[in-house]
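Hi C.,

You asked whether I'd gotten around to modeling the 107-residue construct. I have! Everything is below, sequence then structure, no commentary in between.
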Amino acid sequence: MNKAFDQYFLKIYQGRWSKIKAALSEKNKQISRPNLFAALATGLSEVYVMDPASELVAKALQPKPSDQVLDMCAAPGGKSLILAEQMGFDSKSEWKFPTGTLIVNEM
C-alpha cells in the first residue's frame, strides 16, 4: 500500500488503523461444509465452500420450518443454503417440506 493511503486511513481510524489494515490484508479463510440438498437431486455439489461468518450468522438465527425468513444480503448463497437446510431438514437429515418461507434477495 502506498504512503498516502496509509496516512488517509490513519487520520480516520487513528490507533485502530494498524489492526484494521492487518485484518484487511489477511488471506480469506473459507470453510467447506456438506450440502444436504445434494442427496435430493443429481448435479448438485456435495460440498459448499463459504466464508465462516456466513455459517455463524445462519446458525445463530436457527429458523423453524414455519418461520418467515428474509435474507437481504444473499449472494453468493451460503447463508441461504444453511437457512433452507435448517428450515427443511430434520435432525436425521431427512427432508420435510417447511410451511414457512425463505426469501433470498441480492442487489
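If it helps when you're writing up: The two ends are 30 Å apart (CA to CA).

Thanks,
B.
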